[in-house]
From TrEMBL:
Signal peptide residue numbers: 1-26
Pfam family, one: PMEI
Recorded GO MF terms: enzyme inhibitor activity
InterPro entries: Invertase/methylesterase_inhib, Pectinesterase_inhib_dom
Gene name of the encoded protein: LOC100821053
Domain annotation Pectinesterase inhibitor: ranges: 36-168
Family: Belongs to the PMEI family.
Protein name according to UniProt: Pectinesterase inhibitor domain-containing protein
Entry's Gene Ontology BP terms: plant-type cell wall modification
UniProt superkingdom: Eukaryota
A GO-annotated cellular component: plant-type cell wall
Keyword list, A-Z: Disulfide bond, Signal
Amino acid sequence: MATSSPVLALLLFFSAGVIVPGRTSAGAVPTASPLQQLCGSLGSFYVTPELCTSALCSSPTSRCRSAGNTAQLAALAASLAAANATAAKASLESALSLSLARDTERARQARAPTPLAQARKGIRSCLQLYEGAVPALRWAARAVAAGRYRGAREVLEAAQYVASGCAGMAGGGEGEAAKLMPLENDRFGSMAIVAHAVVASMSAA
């Protein structure tokens, strides 16, 4: 019996090796990239794939998509956490300096502590947290790069609470201290959460 034209058309379609979206020419589903594998496995740490990808690929020069394996991504995450903490610390120092310069004349005139002077107490306490966190996170980044996850995991677990602690010291988003708090504090908070989840997943593997 002759092959009907619709069936013949289908045979020709598939035999031509037409690539179906999401599949290779051989019909196999492509293997997920290391980034997709890692970011898709962090649900137990309450980190979504979107948050993970956003944090690891936040910079146009990030190596997140070219990483060959999850170990390289873990090293990247720890390195970014240290870099973000360093940036937050520098921004806090700058905010304090600018605040002091603005407030000096006002304090002379008032002859009493100004709201900014009170706010600086919270910012200084926050800065102390970062002064302890930055060297610890740099150590953690070196440890993760060397494949030593356990101690680094503990450092990153503690680092998760630095940003929220600073937000509390700044009055929970209200008042003069909140105005002084740089955006880098929030950015570090997100990065620390992701970095901890990534390294914790590696140490549990």
